[in-house]
Amino acid sequence: MELLLKGKWNFAEVGKQEVYEGNVPGDVMSDLMDNGVIPDPRIGLNEQVVQWVGEKDWEYSRTFEVDESMLRFDYVELDFDMLDTLADIYVNDIKISSVKNINRHYSFDVKSLLRVGENTVCVRFFSPLSYIAEKHKKNPLPNSTLGEAGSCHIRKSPYHFGWDWGPHLLTCGISGECRIKCYNVCKITRVDIKQTHVDGKVTLNLNTGFSVETDGITADYALYLNGEKVCSAKGSANASLTVEKPVLWWCNNMGGQTLYDLKISVYTKDNELIAEKTQKIGLRTIELKTDEDEIGKDFCFYINGKRIFARGANWIPADSFINNVSDEKLYDLLYKAKACNMNMIRVWGGGYYESDRFYDICDRLGLLVWQDCNFACSPYPFNDEEFVQEVLAEIDDNVLRLKNRACLCLWAGNNEIESMSMAWLHRQDVIKLCGEFFYNTLKERINSIDGVTAYWACTPSSGTYMKKINSPDYGDTHLWHVWHGLRKLEHYRKMNTRFCSEFGIESLPSLNAIEKFSDGHEYNGVNAPLAKAHQKCIGGNNKIKYYMLSKFWTPENFMDTVYLSQLTQAICVKNATEGWRVKKGRCNGALYWQYNDCWGVNSWSGMDYYGNMKALQYIARRFNQNTALSIQLNDKTADIFFVNDYITSYKTKIVCGIRAYSGEILHSVTNTLVIGDDSVGKVASFYIKTLLKKRKPKDCYIFAVAYDMHGNIVSEETLPLTNENKAKLPKANLSYSLELKGDVAELTVSSDKYARFVEIRLKGYPTMLSDNYFDMLPEQCKVITFNIPSGENEESLKKLISVRSLCDVPRKYSAARDSLTKTAIFLNPVNLANYIARTFDK
Hints:
With 842 residues, this protein is α+β, with helices and mostly antiparallel strands. 21% of the residues lie in helices and 32% in strands. Helix 6 links the parallel strand 25 (368-372) and strand 26 (408-412).
């Protein structure tokens, strides 16, 4: 039996008389916004206005009714799924506990404190600022460049203290569900599932843990598929089920995401049902192989025995206030990852262990989850035994909760502590303790609870502590030579890696997003107050400009700046990912930083906070396809590859060549190829100078189109032979027609000449189009589809749609002036220092 204590609670600042109505689950800043006390800190310049909230203590309380039947149960417990963060808990004015970990599930025996009739529960939250200051004074640790001094001493989400993409918003509150739970005899506390796949059958070896040891308990175990019982067994704590004809779970683009229901029913010796648990599971094997090879050490995931190239991005919390993420928003974000042909999401270690609904969706969509433990970019006080025990309890809670998920592919100990420890080499004691914790203590704890999912101590890492960090030949890498190190966009093509789990550059968010969070403030210009407030990376706005000028030019208006910044970001990530995909086996994954945002901001994301897909996300949809063309441009040659990530061979006809912007085809070849499963084939290699026929590179581009055996286009690519700011792009005339078919709109776009990066904007809506930011060959038509936004019709949609391409963006300054601007940004002392520092990061 459960009594949910969700909904309306009273809350107040401790010591103040005024009482407000708040929400559970929720947080104090959201509740203060709802009551009109503070403005939305994610909007305009409001972040600084609300800082006082995090300096205060807050109290949440409510009454609830208990009847006699509840008190007749053997156990009556008060449960909290998430408390943020430092809090004292009272039931009927009696303090029952003090807590200090946002990542814990708490359960308290309150039967003796409850009475029939009205009862009260109160949770008093304390500001984290004085706590971390006191801890830091007693046990000073090196400061990180991110977050706040001393924040490593508290088990609160690190990004609450500010990050290089997120605001400093120290909220608090009852962030998860709260309930009174009543039961007899015992409850199920854990379910261990070990799968054995042999001879086309799957055996599930099951072990169930109970809250107390009780004689005479029996359990029924049953596995269902689509409501039909597949197999069953009787036992106690242990049982075994064999699936004779299993339907396997696969990640996105490799097969289906079949989920079975495992039901466990527990009975007393008198056959009284006392506990039940149903859990969805996928029948699959997932391995991370890190074997030594002729290069160094591999880093490759295998699902059901098949190697995969991991294609995806890094996930951060989807809001500064996590309870503001609706079911619809969460599904939309993750569905768009699937739709963009991703197969892996890395949950970054500076936010939360995500909600059950997050993993439910990933299970259903086939998105593998690389799960960081909640440590990021800082040393932690592992010399404090109380802190260590608190962390291990957190690990117990979350590993038990997540370990049987179909989507879970990796536990990673932390984010970047190993690489950032270079900044605290003077504290060898700290470095030693971090190594012992992540390579021994944490590994042993996770393996003792899970025992199936792979563990990786740190990202990035070679697998050996403080050795070969970010090596191209060992483990995984975070490659920040581009952006932080100001290397050229093309630099990634020179960089090998076994698996790149972070890389990328920033761009501006969409115009739709800016219109929502600007609150009437001017956003144009690097130094505009709003532009600075919504840029958290030091020098970030100038770096966006630096990289934009390396490919394009200074445009005349802000709308074009948004467009060009997003194209620059997309080109960077595309070049890196494609360069690594054509080296599959040498490289086994590319997860760009970052997938999403927690507020409206200039950042590395492919999806902005309001759900709009940036150019990067649309272009990722193409470069992440299972079958994809890739044009690799070298100094004198161009190589064209076809990547096949399917687990079967693929037959394709490819037409490719070189074409002048005037429309003339200078060279063309047609090849029909069979590309083996999980393989890359070279389609063609062009010696450019010979094929240009006295034309200049600035007047020409490469094209490639791949067809399936039914004549359908499966991939198409073009690439100018020079940077776009040097290319003589033709003035393409774009036209479109719109037709509504039921709930779907069809937009047919035509171009008379070659058009680079055709953009379709649907003003005011984050609606996903079937394609965007694509190139068009002369006289080509493309049909773009999208779901019609609610309330819109053909006439109103035409007013919201705009179509343009790169040739429609006029240049404001000369190439010489743009070059001087770019040089000045590079010579900024901070940028120059970062450039030099990355010289030593091989």
